[in-house]
Amino acid sequence: MSGPATLPPGTFACAGDLPTSRGLEAETLLTGIAEIVTPDGPGPRRGPDQGRLRRVPDAAVAIACGRVDWVGPAAAWQGEAVHVVDLGGRAVVPGLVDPHTHLLWGGDRYDDLEARLAGEPYEAILARGGGIRHTMRATAAADRATLVRSARGRLDAL
Question: How far is Cα 30 from Cα 81, in angstroms, rounded to an integer?
């Protein structure tokens, strides 16, 4: 697809009147997705809604103007795309973001995650001694050998 006639082949126009997935026009179409797992419905999730997921086998993702515009079964895509990228049967988990990590830490925050998924506010977790303060105390209490051993394990897993 070349977009409007004034654009050279292989380019894509991002405009306010750009057709959405209903118009089935995309800059990039990701195919070859064995399974995609994505939040069920539009918008961000909080509390127990974070655990409500939609699994789509043999999926495709259409991207228009740098944003995910459509997610669904590959067979349901009926549009055109400037670029098609075959992911070779990989799984895709969009929106699962770990913006950073630390090599050294003590303790874990699995209970915090379970509480957040159950809808407990972070402030309540923090007030009962969980959250970042929990791992700060566990890190301060851990001996050097324990921290080094756990860090080496994490490095080996990378």
Answer: 10
Cβ count within 10 A of residue 119: 13
Cα(118)–Cα(51) distance, rounded to whole angstroms?
Answer: 9
Give CA angle at 56 (51, 60), nearest 5°. Answer: 125
Please give the torsion angle defined by the CA atoms of residues 114, 118, 123 and 128, in that order, rounded to the nearest 10 degrees.
-60
Burial of 154 (0-12, 13-18, 19+ CB in 10 A): middle
What are the CA-CA distances from residue 127 to residues 47, 50, 110 (Å)?
A: 17, 22, 17
Spatial separation of the C-alpha atoms in residues 58 and 37, rounded to whole Å = 11
- Alpha-carbon gap, residue 60 to 49, rounded angstroms: 24
pLDDT in tens, 92-122: 986 656 667 788 999 999 999 999 989 999 9
DSSP E strand boundaries for the chain: 25-39, 53-64, 67-73, 80-92
Distance between CA atoms of residues 86 and 40, nearest Å: 24
Write out the two tokens for 96.
């699962």
